[in-house]
Amino acid sequence: MARKFSGSWKRKPEGWTLALAILLGIAGGRYASAQDIEILQVQPNFYMIAGAGGNIGVQIGSAGIVLVDTGSAGTSDKVLAALKKISEKPIRYIIDTSADPDHAGGNSALARAGLSIISGAVGNPAFGEDVLGNNGAASVLAHDNVLSRMNAGDSAEWPTKTYTSKFYKMSLNGEGIEVFHQPAAHSDGDSFVLFRRSNVIVAGDLFDPTRFPVIDRDKGGSIHGVIDALNRLLELTIPPYPQPWLAERTYVIPGHGPISDSHDVLEYRDMVVIVTDIIQDMINRGMTLEQVQAANPTDGYNARYGASTGPWTTEMFVTAVYKGLSAKRR
Amino acid sequence: MKTVLRLETALTHSPPRRGGEFGRVLLILCLLSLCPRLPGFAQNAPSAKASAPIDLSGYWVTIITPDWRERMVTPARGDYLAVPLTAAAQKIADAWDPAKDEAAGEQCRSYGSPAINAAPTRFHITWQDDNTLKVETDYGMQTRLFHFGNWKPPAGPATWQGDSIATWELTGPAPARKSGNLRVTTTHVRPGYFRKNGIPYSANVRMIEFWDLFTDPGGTQRIMITQQIEDPEYLFRTWITTYNFKKEPDASKWDPTPCSSRW
Fold it and tell me: For chain B, what are the domain ranges?
């Protein structure tokens, strides 16, 4: 039966509609993989692995594989099996977008399955920490706050290299890679990663169109940081104009959910700003959190982004925004 | 009659004379209304097919990039973002139940003309006759008829595709005016859904479409449809959207599938 869908974004048509094929990676090839893992081709040298926790970005080039995020612990074998389907090259570098276990849970297993960017250089002082910091395994880069947040956990999962500035830049596999820190957004250690030549941004949970933004206030997250991050994403994301029917555009791999583009980020940013303004207005009018919850400030967006159960409910989102805005006011 | 006399006065720059008035009026009436009905005159009026500034015939496939989550998968109940729905329409959308539509045999509710251009479909466009352009879809196997000329809608119940009156909007330097676009106005549509998840339009919906044909820098022929939808019951403002189609070389990908309430 053609065009059979039943609600999940992962279910695909039969490869007949060009644009969706591009957005979902069908045009370039889609690979059946181990159980729940899906491999979606974003660009000729760029893939998204879905189903291992958070989405994983995969850049492939002459030097090997660069991963953005490693998924949840326990999914690494499946991820490695999926990677084998698209490249025999080793994992050379890993970049974490956050400390969340569904994004950085596979750090140790995938790094150990990889190789230092300069194989055989372990112990040679002529090489810097970038290539030697993980005892011959692939390096793991993250913002310094990610390391701080992971300190209580298994040290094998920690990043092997951190950065503390607004951004970190490197060149690998023939393209410039820029890692941008977005402070106080989803948490205080979030990064998104721009692959210049591939024209792909891996956004982590700074952009998650499957739900309202997850704001981890205990780890330094804030609604204004989320909005700043989405605005930054929009600045870097190039739309398909003047030929919107073509595939040329910046693709955004979200923390969860489908491959997106500037329209999707714009729509999401607008939603976040509108809901924030509504809640701010309610706060300005002296409404309590309970009154705000009862007033349903996310009305109109609940069907798409809301949840009444699970790890991040609409009520939790409204609470996080309310508390953040109220604290700022005081 | 007064209008005709004023026109004649303006043309001649002289006051009408009683004696010659009847003959001149007769002549103008003939020119304005009678002569086109005479044999020979009618033969010179080109048909819509003959006067078409663009050739829309062939097989076309939609290119879905914007809003694909609403167009390629069935959105969740209550997800009507970006549709200017009235509160009454939102209530209806919130109560959407595909099982009810199936039980009522109304699986084609989301396949009506106000929805079909956004659908994941192919078009097969042909001339049914010299003044009727036929647009068939493989998605839901629907047929739209664009009527040119003095076509009068037949009496009868509204249909999913409604009554469509078409004109060529000619552009380019006069008198040739060899370029242009198709304009289609559709009314008398049976109430249905803008999207699969039960976002309603009423029997009062009115849609104006502008079909433009162009060739992109890669040499591919494309149709861009700009549609304006008004529905005084369920839309609080005019809803304007555009849709793109790409020409296909043949019918090899034509894949007729029946209507479905769920997908």
Answer: 2-44, 58-248
For residue B88, how many other CB atoms are within 10 A of its CB? 13
CATH class of A18-272: alpha beta
Q: Which of A169-173, A302-306, B12-16, B229-233 bottoms out in mean pLDDT, i.e. has the lowest?
A: B12-16
The predicted-structure confidence for A254-265, as pLDDT tens digits, reads as follows: 999 999 999 999
How many angstroms separate the CA atoms of B237 and A132, rounded? 62
Backbone angles phi, psi at A50, to 5 degrees: -115, 150
CB contact under 8 A, B75 and A303: yes
Tell me if B120 and A13 make a contact (CB, 8 A cut-off). Answer: yes
Task: Look at residues B123, B151, B118 and name the one whose alpha carbon lies nearest to residue B136.
Answer: B123
First to last CA, chain A: 59
Give residue-wise pLDDT tens across range A5-40: 233 333 233 333 434 444 443 333 344 344 589 999
Residue A215 has pLDDT above 60, yes or no: yes
Q: How far, in Å, CA of A211 to CA of A306, rounded?
A: 6
Q: Which two tokens stand for residue A269?
A: 């940013």
Q: How far is CA A295 from CA A242, A276, A278, A281, A291, in A?
A: 42, 14, 10, 12, 6
Any chain B CB within 8 A of the CB of A120?
A: no
Query: What distance in Å separates the CA atoms of residue B91 and residue B85, rounded to the nearest whole number?
Result: 10
- Separation of alpha carbons A108 and A110, rounded Å: 6
Any idea where the domains of chain A sit in the sequence? 18-272
Q: Identify the three-state secondary structure at position B210.
A: strand
- From CA A209, how far away is CA A233, in angstroms rounded? 14
pTM of the model: 0.81
Phi first, then psi: give them for residue B189, nearest 5 degrees. Answer: -100, 140
- 3-class DSSP state of B152: coil
Above pLDDT 90, what percent of chain B? Answer: 72
Q: Which residues contact A330 (CB under 8 A, 6 or more apart)?
A: none
Residues of A in contact with B73 (CB under 8 A): 5, 7-9, 11
What ipTM score was computed for the predicted complex, to two decimals?
Answer: 0.73
Supply B170's token pair.
């000619």
Distance CA A297, CA B6 (A): 64
Q: How far B248 CA lies from chain A's nearest CA (Å)?
A: 11
Chain segment A71-94, per-residue pLDDT in tens: 999 999 999 999 999 999 999 999
Residue A16 touches chain B, beta carbons under 8 Å: yes
